[in-house]
From TrEMBL:
Classification via InterPro entries: Hvo_1808-like (IPR047792)
Taxonomic source organism: Halocalculus aciditolerans
Name the record gives this protein: DUF4157 domain-containing protein
Length: 477
């Protein structure tokens, strides 16, 4: 399932939702003098009786009836054809559901395996985003229920638009986004194996980047040459979606494809037109870093991090069928780790200044289409990482996380930032070498070991200091 999510920019504890909003409009009648004649055969920019620049007789203050809705869908298909230069060979079914219906449906997916829950909990705990007393899968599900605007189901070849209530007007930009997903899955091989978070962000950087690029061009036309259907914002709310429940740290990790993907696709298109973008589906980026820095695609150095399992018999590796037997969080995870304290309301202060991880316009506003800087100084120079998750008989978890860098300076910068993150969450140094730390209470309580050697940083976490050497032999306790 591929989807469009709401862009959420939280600065100084404020959630600002960037979307397509406007007042109800009445548009001229389709087929009137402003509409070109229908072509004799189907062609780019025309679909099921509607040209891409054709006007519609629609009043949006009472929602859309069936004929109005289908006219908007047909015209949006023509507009996607015009922008993306790919023909729709058949109609795309489009359904609408309310956000509450979506939440109920997405909550009915069954219980995850114990291994998956333990692995994901440890992964987000290692980034200080979800505490050990929380359920990371529930946090991710809640995030998605609050921010998703629509999705395309490849298995059903249909689109679902999520609205904030009955008879709500659909967002034509969301429709454009999901229609591009239909074009992708109908025309390109999309069966990518994405066994880690970084691989998923890399592949989605192309897929969602393509759809967001089309959506952004579509929006530019809406502001100039085209009349577009826009939902009316709810009174007294910037979104009406309950976005205040979002975990912004997890959001930053998973928003990467929507933030940096359009720039990646735009760079490909500038270099070789849509053919270059189409060719990328046969050779997708391997890491999120290639998406964030398009000039490194497709030759960005990616280290297969060497990490031996030296745990003793009390700690067993946790692996999830269908995934890599390790985690790799990449530049998006590292960025979220240092950025999240700026949004945490449990204590004052942060770890880094917002300008470290946010992209600003010259006027001082955050860029709504590309809000996050995933190549900040703490993530810059990343070449690979590997996270091993462990569990003992008491269902306690531990992990070993190793990150490799382009230079010793990059490694030292990351280590410095990591120490600041530890300190923010209550970490205290317990040895003179500044390699061992302790967090006494809270969701990240436990013992930590941090060591940088050349271009490699190794982190070991265990519930107690006495467990560190059991999780990874040779770790000073």
């Amino acid at each position: 399932m591929v989807m469009r999510t709401r862009s959420v920019l939280a600065v100084a504890a404020l959630l600002v939702f960037a979307g397509c909003v406007g007042t109800p409009v009445t548009q001229p009648l389709a087929g009137s003098a402003d509409a070109p004649p229908d072509p004799a055969t189907d062609q780019l920019g025309w679909e099921a009786g509607y040209w891409y620049n054709e006007s519609l007789a629609i009043t949006t203050d009472d929602g859309l009836n069936e004929s109005e809705f289908q006219a908007v869908v047909n015209r949006a298909m023509a507009r996607d054809e015009h922008i993306r230069n790919i023909e729709f060979e058949k109609q795309v079914p489009v359904e609408v559901m309310t956000r509450e219906e979506y939440r109920q449906q997405s909550n009915g997916g069954g219980s995850p395996s114990e291994a998956r829950l333990a692995f994901d909990n440890a992964k987000f705990q290692s980034l200080f985003l979800v505490g050990q007393d929380e359920n990371s899968l529930s946090v991710q599900q809640s995030n998605q229920g609050s921010s998703v605007l629509g999705f395309y189901s490849p298995s059903k070849d249909e689109i679902v638009i999520v609205t904030n209530g009955e008879n709500a007007v659909i967002d034509e930009l969301t429709l454009a986004h999901e229609l591009d997903h239909a074009l992708q899955f109908r025309n390109f091989e999309m069966g990518y194996a994405s066994p880690t978070r970084d691989a998923s962000n890399a592949h989605s950087g192309l897929i969602e980047g393509d759809a967001r690029y089309v959506e952004n061009r579509y929006e530019e036309y809406c502001g100039e040459a085209w009349q577009c259907v826009k939902p009316e914002p709810k009174s007294g709310s910037s979104s009406g979606s309950g976005g205040s429940s979002l975990n912004l740290g997890v959001y930053i990790v998973k928003y990467f494809p929507y933030s940096d993907g359009p720039g990646f696709v735009g760079a490909l298109k500038d270099a070789g037109g849509w053919d270059a973008v189409n060719d990328a589906y046969s050779d997708p980026p391997d890491t999120a870093k290639e998406v964030a820095l398009p000039e490194t695609y497709p030759e960005a150095g990616h280290t297969n991090v060497s990490l031996a399992d030296t745990s003793d018999g009390e700690w067993d590796r946790v692996t999830v069928p269908g995934r890599a037997p390790y985690g790799e969080v990449g530049v998006a995870g590292i960025t979220a780790m240092v950025a999240y304290p700026s949004y945490d309301d449990s204590k004052e202060g942060g770890v880094v200044k917002p300008r470290t991880f946010l992209n600003y316009k010259p006027n001082g506003d955050v860029q709504s289409d590309d809000p996050f800087n995933y190549t900040n100084r703490y993530a810059d120079g990343w070449t690979g990482d590997k996270l091993y998750v462990y569990q003992n008989a008491a269902d306690e978890t531990a992990y070993v996380w190793r990150v490799t860098w382009e230079s010793p300076g990059d490694a030292q910068t990351f280590a410095s930032g990591y120490r600041n993150v530890l300190a923010y969450w209550g970490g205290e140094t317990v040895n003179d070498a500044n390699t061992r730390y302790r967090i006494a209470d809270g969701g990240f309580r436990g013992a930590y070991f941090l060591q940088t050697s050349g271009t490699t940083t190794t982190i070991v976490y265990a519930p107690r200091a006495s467990d560190l050497d059991d999780v990874r032999q040779g770790t000073p306790t």
